[in-house]
Every structure is written in structure tokens, then in C-alpha cells.
Amino acid sequence: MIEFITGPAGNGKTTCMFGRIKECCSQAEKLCILVPEQFSQDFDKKLYFYLGAENFNELFSLSFTALARQLFQLYGDPGRSGGFADNMAKMIIIYQAVTSALSRPEAVSSLRKQSRQNGFAEDIMKLIRDMKRGGIDPSVLLQKTQLLDKRLREKTNDLAAIYVEYQRFMEEYGFKDELDNIREAAKAANLNRYFCGKTVFLDEFESFTADQYEMIKVMIAYAENVCITLRTDDVNAGKYTLFETVNDTYRKIMNICHELGKETRMTVCGENHRFRSPDLEYISRYVLKNTAPAPQSAPCACNVRIFEARDMYSEAEYVCAAIKHLIYEDKELKYRDIAIISNDIASYSDVLKAAFKRYDIPFFLSIEKSVGHTAVMVFFTTLLDILGSRKFRSEQIFRMIKSGLLDIDLTETSLLENYCYKWGVDGDMWNESFTAEDNELEKLEKIRSCIIDPLLKLKRKIKRNKTASGICSMLYDHLAECGAERNTAVLMGKLIDENKDYEAAEIKRMWGCLIDILDSIYETLGEKEIDFAEFSRIIRSMIGQIQYSVPPQTLDAVTAASARMARLDSPKIVFIMGANDGNFPNQISVHGLFSDADRSKLAENGIELSTPIAELIASERLVVYKALSAASHRLFISYPLSDLSGQAKYPAQIVDRIIGMFRDNSLRKTDEDISVDFYSVTLHSAFYHYMQERSNGSVEVVSIKKLLMDRPEYRRRLSYVISRSNMKHDYHIDKDIMRKLQNFEPLRLSSTCLEEYNLCHFKYFCDKCLRLHVNEKVELDARIAGELTHRCFFGILGSRSKSEFVNMSYEEVKDAIGSCAEEYRNTALAGDFGKDARFELIFNKLTERMSEVFMYTQQALMVSDFVPHDFELDLRESHNVVLPFGSGEQLSFGGIVDRADICRIDDRDYLRIIDYKSSRKNITPETLACGINMQMLLYLFASTDKGGLYEGYEPAGVLYSPVRISDIRLDSYKIVSKNSGALTSSLRTSGIVLGDIDILKAMERDVRGEFIPVKLDKNGAPDKNSDCISSEGMTLLRNYSYSKLIAMADSLLDGDAEASPLVLEGKVPCTYCDYINICDNSELTNQRTADMDAVAEAASILGMKYYQEKEE
Questions:
Q1: Which molecular function GO terms apply here (predicted)?
Q2: Which residues pair with 369 in a beta bridge?
Q3: Among 675, 718, 778, 900, fewest CB within 10 Å belongs to which?
Q4: Cα–Cα distance between 351 and 283 in angstroms, integer?
Q5: 107 and 119, same domain (yes or no)
Q6: Of 546, 574, 609, which residue constitutes the final position of a domain?
Q7: To 10 degrees, the CA torsion angle through 591, 592, 593, 599?
Q8: Residue 297 CB: number of other CB atoms within 10 A?
Q9: Of 695, 694, 701, 697, residue with least CA distance to 678
């Protein structure tokens, strides 16, 4: 007798079967109970409680796989010999089969290109598994492809060729495939009439594979009784109904019964036994039906809740808070009675972990994780990358080091990484000793050698020995020699000392997996030669096949699991998370070597390579049904409106369907409907939500604050937060602390200090006082271009007289620049170390085009009486400006002057300062008022004041000579001598000079404004746009400049480090600031502009021009 026990979810199908089993307990040896492997534990638990210990101990349930093993133990496996190939061995053989088939051009044509893509072997393995389950061998596959079109026939023939090779290698290595077990076991059961006189029970199955149907056919043929439970409310329902998958299974089994002439019986379980309220039963019965009764007849939805969350974090907060409320309200409810299920549980895992901790909820997250991210596997796969690469790559080297399995600590790793970042170490540079200057160069070279030498040695060994066993042995030896094996054990010991036994066991497990992989290749391939690239691909595929899950850490815990794979033990409360469109049910997409259209054509010709897409859709609907029908007491459904990346998401249709069924919009709650006190079920969660809502003065928020203030551990934290609320950030540094950070005896200021401080006090404080600096990177930027320019001017002008320089030809200048540039490169940039082709190109172009600047300088000196007198003039240690400030303190200002020119006019000596800048600098009332662009003025006054190097000289002015090489454009003809060529205005100087006509003509004879920022009008006086100043104005400018230095020193001593950047001419200094993320002013809520009174004072000084005084 073949009995079908049918009914929808919760109607007692399994309980009815338990009754049948109990009736047969006296003949336990004649019972055979089959359930899916993933449900066996829960099934046995329920059966134990139903039968009692005495009856249960006489029984045992099996999966189809376990039944096959039992049959082999009884009758042997005469058709096959050898051991079973595990997944690792199969992956090796798949790669061997693909390689062997590809070696014969006639064997593989259509799939040849795809075979070079990642994941090809995995796709082939899945197809072979599906064909074996479906009873399709290579000969059958070839036979059935004759009626296919050419393209699909070629692709299928390619697959058959690889399949043939797979079978051949399995036999050659003496392996048996467990995928053949059920089919072979069915033959053994049929031959030996194993099921004669037995009663067979099958529960929790929704569909069967082809080999399982073969076993079922033997059961039906010989067993006395077969009892099968099926989750369906109508076995005769048509297509596209909820239980289409199950009904199709029923029809296939009925066809077997009719074929064998067996009598059948139908037992329908029509009464609900699971749901404790009519609303849950109503949802289960009608939610996925095409028709439903009128909403007027719907029960009250007292035990159904729908929550619309802003995002996944808000959703997790709601779920965890609701769980705590349920536990507090029902003393009999346990955490194990609650389940959280989602079709996208992997995305929720980290969010839920944090929320569970906040709400003090014990949990079991049933999710399988890949081993690829673990330290052991990252180390090994990176090692394979390094060995397979032609050159060493810094990214790979540091990924391997940071796995923590080498004898290199974090300090050494950081030191090496900073050095490599600075000098751009990569590729072949790892093969040579480090030569670029560094304080820790000897230590760095030792670290490099410790890493690279063993890798080079291993690379050479692998080139000589290409056998699979040889490579495995060499890799294992390297793991031992480099300390990876030892350090893995050390890391495990540290974790055990920290009471992290599970983490230690996980590392041990990963190391065991790695050794198993090497052993499997060693034993399977042995002395066969193999290309290292293929060897690496095989290992990566094997690692990709390994997954692990964390076992439950406590008996009483909330289970969070995938809706498809969840093995729930009669939960009372179910939370369905992520009920979004495209996720609930999942959107079906077909991936692999064959498209959905290809699979349909193959299915029409009797080749079922995978489950048809229509069946997959029906299966997904069934997953949704099971999820909605799992709860016995209460059901919560939630969905976020955005994912973790902020992308918008929308509710699933099922949500609106449920609301429409009950015609009750109040079922859906949003974040705005939930008060903050709902989340305050633990102190941690209360504090978390108070911090977010503390600006809200509601009664609930005030109550939470009072609750937290009554707890000492939170009172201190809360008091600090309240004390800082609505307060402006205090950037004032105590004087005593400031004196420890900055030396004021005396306060030494460089040329950039005044400008940097005035642009932003906080930036100066971080840079000069705290000395917080980003890692330096040596590359051709504005700084290096400027240093190179200075070095060339110093080398060429400093070693020649004015007349010698102006008489140099273009070629002589070009050669001199090349010589100076090469010297600078070798001394300051470590020569060729760390230089790539791009650096070479830009550096050469820079030196070539620098000649244009020198031609301009030649022309300027030809029409000037001023003579270059000194270069790179150091005013820092001696001959610097010393000014009093504060209460008896002194400041010392100094720096390096690029070039000092002198000239004697009417028995008086004059000095002008030339500075080469990568950007144009202008002296305006605004810049003076703000203390910007004043470095050269300070140098000028420091040099000519009492005690200065040019004491007794009159300050003639300062000139900023722009050397923006990238901005220079030549006319249509090239400069070939000092008298030819024209340069654009981008080279013209800026600054300020004395407005005396004799001095102006000494700087540029005809004063046309080509080489100084002054141009004479038709009356022979400087025009209104000229940047000149009278002697009296120069004296006032000196005093004004010194006052800015003193003001800065006083402000610094007072501890002013306010993050209030100066906005000048629409430019904000924050754009490229290294400290913008720590100043608490990234949105520029606090900023400064030029003080109008100071601007007016500066304007009056700059307005004292020579020609105005003449008119007066």
C-alpha cells in the first residue's frame, strides 16, 4: 500500500506519520525512515518526544545518502572499487579533465574561450553533478544532442568531451563518485530485494532527483507499505499554483505506482494544529493563493506586525527591541522559541551581531562563511599570487605580511610600508638592496631580505621541479621555514590565553584545511607535471569550495537563518527581515555556461541539466509560504527602505497583499510611529538611542536620561556628553602646555610659519606644535620642481659672474641645467631608485623646459644694473631678525633667501630679494592685512636691518619670479640664443619695489614692465597699476611686517589654535589640508575674512607711491 499524507503547513502531516510509525514500533527492524539530511536532527528530536525513549531507541532515520552507505555495507559495491573522491579530489580531477580535453583541438571548440575564465571548472563540476543526479552519462548526452542546432550541439559536445575525461581520470586514479551511490545502491536493493516486507516512511521532501526516484521505485516495488508526506492542499491543482512543485512530485510517484500496479491511499490532514490564532492561519491559507475571501470575513490581525524601517540598522533595532519586549512580557517564552529568517541573511549578519550585543540577546547565526578571508588562507593565496607573478608587487607583499604569520611585527611592517610608499617601491626594486637614504635603512634592508630571499629561493625551486608532489612539498617546507606554521600555533596560544577558544579552534581548522588541500593534490596528482598557474587555480577553486559555520554557543538562543535553508524547531515567534521586492521571494537569475534558453532546448530533448526556471520560481514561492507559515503564535514582517550602501529598496508585493487581506493599514508601522522608549529595554540600547535623540525634549527622552543618570556606569559618560552639548569647541591651549609643545626661548619662526598660522591657527598647531605629518611620497610635485629650480639657479648663477651668465648660449644653459638636475636627482631623489618611466619622462621634460626660465632671467639681467650677489642665503642661525613680544620673550625670524641682488646708485647701496615660486604671489592690502605673502619682505628687512648681512643697504624691493613650468608656452619658434625668442606674461615677476625712478631704471632700463611690476606712463612716472612704494612707505611697511610677526607670536603663546580658516579672494585653505578630518570644522561653519580696518591701514601704506609724493 502506498499512502500519501497531504495538507498545508501546520496541519499535522508529520504527527500523523508519527502515529503510523508508533503502530509499527514492535517491528522496528522492518521500518525504514527517510528525511532530508538537513532536517534529520529536528525530525529525530520530535520523534523522540512523540515515541518516548524506549520506542525511539529501536529506530533511526536516514537520508538517501546514508541509506546508500547502509546498503553498500550489507551487500558490498561489486561494480566499483577504490575509495570515494572528496570535493577536493574532484576539483583536481575536473581541472585535469578540462586540460586534457583542451589539449585536443577537435574535442573542445565552443567552450575553449570560456575555459580560460575564472569559475569555469566550478561550472563544469556543477553540470556534471546535475547530469549524474539525472542519470545522464556522456554517451547518453552525445546521443541526445544530435537533434540540437549547431551552436548548442557544439557546446554540448564540448561538455561531453570534458565529462568523458572526468570519468576516465576517476577510474585512472581509482576513485568512486558518491554521486553514483544512490543509483548503484538502488540496483543493489533491487537485486537483493532489500525492501521486501518493510514499511518505508518519507517526510519533509518536496521534490526528488532522478537517482532518488530510482530508489523510490525499488521501494514501491518491494516494500509492504510506503508512507509519504507532501505539503499541499490539493494534489490535483493546476499549473502555476502555490504547491506546483509538490504536486509535480505527487504525479511522478503516482506514475510509478501505476506502472507497478500498486494500490494507493490518500490521507488529507485538513485541521490546523500549529497556529494559535486565526489570523496566522488565515495568512498561511490565503496569502499566496490566487483568490482569497472578502476582507470582511478576515479575522482580526492581532498577532501580525509589519514594520517599515529607514534602513537595515533601524530594522535590526526594531527586531531586537521587539524580542526583548516579548521575553519580558511572557515569562514562559524562551529565546529558542524565536526565529529570525531572511532571504538575504548574509547582508544582515554584521548588523544583527551588533544589535544582538546591544540588546543582550543570545543568538545563533546559521550562515555559512567562506574560508577565503581568514588569515591562513589570505597568507597562502597571496603567496601563490607572488610566486605566479613575474615581478614582486608591493600590494601582494604587504597583504602577506599583514596576515600576521611571518616573523615581522607591526612596527616593522609600518616602517617598511612607509618607506615603500615614500619611494614608490614596487616590481624589480624588491630584488635589489634598498639604497634611498633613511634613518632606519639598515633595519629596512634586513626586513626586505627576510621577506624576499626565501621567496626568490622558492621561485627558483619551483622552476626546476614542476611535479605536483614536488610543488606541494616545497610549499609546505616554505610554510615551516618562513615561520607561518610556528606563528599559527603562537596565535592560537594567545587566543586561548584570552579565553577565545573558538577563535583558536577556527585558526587550527583553517590550517588543517590548508594542509588537507596540499595532501589531496600530493596524493592525487603525485609525480605528474603541472603548470604552476594551473596548480594555483586548482588550489583557489578548492579553497572556494570550503565553507564553515559557527555552531550554537548556547542552548537557549534566537536562531537567525536563511529562509531557504532554515531548520526551525516549531518556533512560536518568527521575524521575517528583508521583505523587499526582489528578495522575498528571491528574483530568479540563471548563471553558468548555458543560458536559460539553452537549458529549455536541452530539456525538450530529454537533457535536464538543472532545475527548470519555472520550477525555481515555484520553489521560491514555496520558500515564502514556509516562512509565513512557520510561526505558531506571532509573526513580524519588516523591510528597509534602503540597503547598506544607501540604495533605495521597496516593499515586496506580499506586504501589501497581507495588508489588503485584512484591510487594516494600521498593521504597518514606521520609524516615526515607534517612540524612543520602545528601544530602551537594556541600558546599552537606552544609551545608544538617547545619544541619537537627546536633542528631542520629549517626555520619553527625559525619562531615559533619568534612568541612565541613576546608573553610575552611565552617569559619567552622560554627564560628559551633556557638558559638551551646545558648546563651541575650545581650541585654546594652556600656556604651560604650549610652552612644552613649542620652544619660546626664543621662538624661532621660518618664512612659512607666519603665513601658515594666519591661514589657519589649527593647521599650524597640528603641523608645527604637534608635528602631525602625513607620510611623505617622493614624486614630481610642485615642491620638488621648486627645489630643482633653486638648485639649478644656485649651481649656474652662483658659479658664474653676471656677464658670464648673460653670455651663455642656449645650448650651454641647457647643458648646465642638465648637469645640475642630475646632481640634484642623485643627492636628493636617490638617483634611479624608485623611478618609473613616467618619472623619467616628466623629469626630462621639466629640465628641458627650465631653459625658458633661464632665458627670461638672462634677458632680465641684460637690461638691469643689479648684480646677483648671493644665493641660498641662510638667515636662520645668524643675522636673523630678533623681536620682543609677550612678557620679555623674544622671537627669531629667519629663512633661506633664493637670491640677493645688489646695486650701487648715487653712492648708496641697494638690495633686492628674488624668490622663485611655483605660483604667482601678489602683495595687496588684503594679503598684508592677513599676514600673507610677506616672507620676502621679512627677508628684505632682516637682511638690511642692523646686524643683518646687508646692514647699511637700502631695501630696494622684492620680486617673485614664477617658475610654473607647466604653464610656459613658447611662440612658434624655439629660443636659440639670449637675443631671440619671446616668452608669455606667465614669467613676469610680481612683488613690490622702491618707486624711485633711478632705482627703477637700474632694475629695467626702459621700465616697460617686462621684468619688474612697474611700467612708466607717457609722463615718465609709474602708472596706476604699478607695484611700487616710496622710501617712507617702505619704512612703514617694515614696521607693519614686524608687527604681524609679533602679533602671531603673542597669539601662539596665548594658546590660540582655533580652527577658523582664512577665506581670501574666495580661496579656502582647507581644500588640500591634511587635518580637515580632525578640526571639527569640515563644513566651514567657522571662518575668517580680512579685517577691514587692517586692510585700510595696509592700503594707506601701499598707497604711498613715489609719483604721488612728487605731485604733492
A1: ATP binding; DNA binding; exonuclease activity; helicase activity
A2: 548
A3: 675
A4: 29
A5: yes
A6: 546
A7: -60
A8: 8
A9: 701
Annotate 169-194 with DSSP letters as a single string. HHHHTTEE-GGGHHHHHHHHHHHHTT
Q: DSSP letters along 623-647, please?
A: HHHHHHT--SSEEEEEEESB-TT--
Query: Quick check: is 52 in a domain?
Result: yes
Residue 887 lies in a domain: no
Q: Is residue 793 assigned to a domain?
A: no
- Please report the pLDDT score of residue 746 as a whole number: 87
Place of cell 625658458: 852
Angle, alpha carbons 945-950-954 (nearest 5°): 70
Judge whether residue 722 has pLDDT over 90: no
Vertex 266, ends 262 and 271: CA angle to 5°?
A: 165
536's grid cell: 594555483
Cross-strand bridge partners of residue 1055:
none
Please check whether residues 496 and 575 belong to one and the same domain: no
Greatest mean pLDDT among 97-101, 316-320, 461-465 lies in 316-320
Whether 643 and 559 map to the same domain: the answer is yes
Q: Which residues of 487-499 are buried (b: 16+ CB within 10 A; e: fewer)?
A: bbeebbeebeeee
Count: domains in the chain:
6
Better pLDDT: 659 or 852: 659
Which residues face 885 on adjacent strands?
Answer: 889
Q: Which residues contact 26 (CB under 8 A, 6 or more apart)?
A: none
Tell me, yes or no, whether 391 and 539 share the same domain: yes
Helices (H) and strands (E) in the chain, counts: 41, 26
pTM of the model: 0.78
Q: Are residues 429 and 535 in the same domain?
A: yes
CA distance 1050 to 1026: 34
Question: Is 90 exceeded by the pLDDT of residue 356?
Answer: yes
3-state per-residue secondary structure call for 245-291? HHHHHHHHHHHHHHHHCCCEEEEECCCCCCCCCHHHHHHHHHCCCCC
The verdict on residue 489 lying in a domain is yes
Residue with cell 527602505: 641
Q: Are residues 126 and 143 in the same domain?
A: yes
What's the Cα-to-Cα distance from 389 to each of 73, 394, 786, rounded to whole Å?
49, 12, 38
- Specify whether 312 is located in the same domain as 386: no
Q: How far is CA 683 from CA 359, 710, 714, 916, in A?
A: 8, 11, 8, 63
Domain region containing 716:
683-724
DSSP-derived letter for residue 1018 is T
Same domain as 192, residue 50? yes
CATH number at residue 460: 1.10.486
